[in-house]
Design brief:
It contains no helices and 15 strands. By secondary structure, the chain is mainly β. The strands form 3 sheets. The protein has a 6-stranded antiparallel sheet, with no helix packed on it. A 5-stranded antiparallel sheet has the order 1-2-3-7-6, with no helix packed on it. It is globular and about 50 Å long. It starts with 5 loop residues before the first strand and ends with a strand.
Amino acid sequence: LETGFVQNIGVSDSDNGVTITAEQLIGDANGVYILYSIRADDPDLLSAWTFPHYELTLDGEPRGKGCRDWTDPGNLYDVEQRRDEDGTLYFYDLLMTDPGESFSGKQAYVHVDYIDDMATDEDIFPIIWEGDIELSWEINYVPSEVRTYEIHQDVAWNDSTIRIESASVSSIGITLTCSGISTETNEVEGLGNVVSICEDDRAVANA
């Protein structure tokens, strides 16, 4: 896939039998998605519920954490079909931009120091790998065009009501400006699972 709003990154680092690669970035005026892959020398090490603990900075500014330290802004999110036949796992990070902000030209740095497995009933997920992996690259993309539509409608959501003020639509996603905060995966007729993630007063819906 070669378009202006896509950056093929291909930056990898390995330690202690694990390789993590920053594969690709796509972005619009509302934010960017960064896709990563994880490969292990031991095919039995990784499972469909394996997640890395990582920290991401842009030009030295903390912008995201993953795994146990779920926090705003920026989080690690599961990819629905995330395991290849060869055992490669995929996950992605969603980073929201402020109005008028672009990440293009900034230096991204990712540090991964352990991986744990959430496929357990334990209160604390067991760490299955520890190491030191560092990824760094310059972000380079042209944000996908966004069209914004005024809505101003109240919507019932999980026994509460949120007001959707507007919807910004691009070729990579839909961003809703709304009041109310929620995170949910829902089955939507004709679309399948739709994941809604609120950050501040914006919700990103991915179909």
